[in-house]
Every structure is written in C-alpha cells, then in structure tokens.
Amino acid sequence: MKKCTLILMFILTITACKKEKEESTTVATETNVDTLASKSDSLTLDDYYKLPNTEEKAKWLKQYGDKVKRKVLEEAVLRDHKVKGTLTDQKGKYVITWGNLKKIIKNHGYDAYLNIEHKDNKIDTLKMVSEYISKEGGPYYRFSTALIRSLAKEYGKNNDNAEFHFSFAMIDKSGEPVVAIQVNGNPNNTQSANETPYFDYSTDPSKKDQNPNPNINKPL
C-alpha cells in the first residue's frame, strides 16, 4: 500500500511539472508574438533618406516600407510629393472615385505601385505593377499606395465618392512632364478639387541619376 502511494505521488509530481512547463512555453510564445507585432510598424524613414539613389531607395521601401510608423509615412509622402512650384499645361485629365481606386490598389503596400497607363499624353487607365523601376520602355508614372491612401484620408476623408483627378502637367515650365493628382473630397456638393496638387516622381527611370532636379524619381 505504501509503495502504491509513493508511485501515485511520483506520477502526480511529473504531471504537475509537465503542465507548468507547457504554460510557461505558451506565455513565452504569446510574449514573442506581441513583441513582434509592436515592432512591425516602428521604423522611421531616416535610413531611407540616407540612401544615394532611386534604385536603393526603392529596394529599401520594398523591404521595410510597410514597417514604417503610419503617422511618419503619411506626413512624409504628403510633404515630399507636394507640388512646390507652379503647375502649368495640365492636360489629359483622368477622374476616378476613391471607391473604385481602392479596388485597384487593394491591400498592396510597397510590394506594388499604381502605374499610369497612357498614350499621347492621355491617361487611359490605372493598374498595379510589382516594381517601381522598369528597365525597358518608359517614361513611367508611378505612385505608392501610401501616397494614394494618405490623399484619400487627408482630402477625401475616405469618402468613396471622393474623386481623384490625374493629369499630365509641367512644374515651373520644366522639361519633364509629371502626372499630378488633385482630390475632390465632396463632388456631390459641387466642391472643387484641392488647390494643392501632388505629383509623381517617376518620370523616366533611365534618367533617374542624370536629372538635376532632386525632386524627381523618389519612390516614397
């Protein structure tokens, strides 16, 4: 009887130790997941701005762009893409609602860019492409989804009826055309598009390191 009691106590002790170990492992796993989640959007753009050329910046964004703090990213794209000169010679306007545009960009981050499909200075349609820089053809006009979403939030108030106006234009009579965006947040109330336009930096990638304008070809 005494021997049976000792065996039973031994079994209970082993079971208790095993359960404690499992609980400890579960807690550790949950802690690791929480830590990873908290770091998933904790980056700044300091390293991005230190990179010397467009190609390296595009690679950095592809790897780390979606981990940048949302507020930091929103402020940066709105600041960096804002037209600081005079917009002239606008033509080929293409209008699309935010409701339809977000169906195109879906849940993409820096794994894809919104590409302007165009011919003879007329915008035909918009589609997603996997890279910021293409080695052949061009010129290309591409926007990050971060910029598009930030404009929808800032000027469209995420209203599905808000209109995005894309058009070809010149800035201060520059030799390189850009594609400018203006957002009409409430077209149903005859509201006009925002007076401050935003533009792409991806004119012709083949000239990305020759163009003296430092504002050209930034994939942010």
TrEMBL record:
Residues 183-195, 211-220 have a biased composition (Polar residues). It comes from the Bacteria. Residues 182-220 are annotated as: Disordered. This is Lipoprotein. It comes from Flavobacterium reichenbachii.
